[in-house]
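Provenance

Sequences were taken from public entries as deposited. Structures were produced by running a predictor on each sequence independently, with no templates supplied. The record for MYO5B protein from Sagittarius serpentarius is shown for reference.
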Amino acid sequence: VQQVFKQLFYVINAVALNNLLLRKDVCSWSTGMQLRFNISQLEEWLRGKNLQQSGAAQTLEPLIQAAQLLQLKKKTSEDAEAICSLCTSLTTQQIVKILNLYTPVNEFEERVTVAFIRDIQMHLQERNDPPQLLLDFKHMFPVLFPFNPSSITMDSIHIPASLNLEFLKKV
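Predicted structure for MYO5B protein:
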């Protein structure tokens, strides 16, 4: 059950983050607030079902950081440093793409300046990120089956003749 929910939450993360990276109309402060609220609801559900050890919440980390990135101030060099230290699960390409797509929804917000984006790129240039922008939503985590040894010894097993397994011999 834990492995199923980890995979499910990864797909939720990948699809939501890919949509964020591809749609300018959703890159705003209010979307960041809505995302963070929805993610907290998912995390609360995991806690309520006692699935916090499944790793499902950790698969949402890139989406959480993207939501926080949408909510942070984006003006000064200190803001750039804060963004770089916070967004460790996002690649440089993803951070820059979200900043480029950021669209203010009211008059109190401003677009992200080109100078600020260059500052971010300067701070992140030593990172060795993979060159991919979008997450692979078809990624599959390996399924692990726990080994539970049987208390029945092999000497005590009787194979019925009706199974037609005469080729099996007790040694």
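The chain has one domain: 1-124.
The first helix runs from residue 2 to 22.
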